[in-house]
Design goal:
This protein is an alpha+beta fold. Helix content is 42%, strand content 12%. Helix 2 crosses helix 6.
């Protein structure tokens, strides 16, 4: 099979966290999301366990409560980061990131849809292999979901700060104690036409061959 590599590369290179450009007013169709989830669960999973679960939230009251926990967590995080910062001014790019993150924190409870990628099981403090396998069984599927949504004009952002209030959020959502929530994805159609490639350090400067430090 011949793939249109230009289209594939374009989706991969322009899918990123969407914050300020989420359309807070336009509903996201349920059937579109279900199609994207069908795509997502084709992702690899450790030992073919397929322990993923997805909680899709559109209830306005529940979203508002989750959004408030997220907002409190974000501002607490920002204060802690600020206390440890140096006297130097953040770069222009970092200022844009902070601005967009603050905007999302202030409006999280207003997004038309939240999706919580979950996985059966809990992390073990003493077992890196178990932890890697647990998160490695949900993160690839969640990323496939974000790519599938992006291809349909729908944006998302990988966020985790609500987990500072994990028990409170789980109580709102009815998530059982033996399930791990990997993230909160705010989901909405994005405004504007498209996104550009991000500025990144070249892969050649980040890649070692055969041994650490050998490029």
């Amino acid at each position: 099979m011949n793939f249109d590599l230009a289209s594939v590369d374009y989706i991969l290179e322009t899918t990123r966290s969407v914050r300020k450009r989420l359309d807070l007013q336009r509903p996201v169709p349920r059937d579109t999301v279900m199609r994207c989830l069908e795509i997502a669960i084709q992702a690899p999973t450790g030992s073919n366990s397929q322990g993923w679960k997805w909680l899709v939230l559109t209830d306005a009251d529940k979203k508002a409560k989750i959004g408030e926990y997220y907002r409190e967590s974000w501002y607490a995080y920002a204060r802690n980061v600020g206390r440890g910062a140096s006297d130097s001014q953040p770069s222009e790019q970092m200022q844009r990131v902070i601005s967009s993150a603050r905007y999302l924190a202030d409006h999280m409870g207003e997004v038309p849809m939240m999706i919580f990628p979950c996985v059966q099981g809990r992390a073990a403090d003493s077992s890196p292999a178990v932890n890697a396998g647990l998160y490695g069984s949900i993160i690839p599927a969640a990323w496939s979901l974000m790519l599938a949504l992006r291809a349909r004009g729908i944006g998302a952002a990988w966020t985790t700060l609500h987990l500072s209030y994990e028990s409170e959020c789980n109580a709102i959502l009815g998530i059982p104690d033996d399930v791990t929530t990997a993230a909160l994805l705010p989901v909405a159609f994005f405004t504007g036409d498209t996104f550009q490639k991000a500025k990144r350090v070249p892969a050649s400067q980040l890649t070692y061959w055969e041994s650490w430090g050998e490029s």
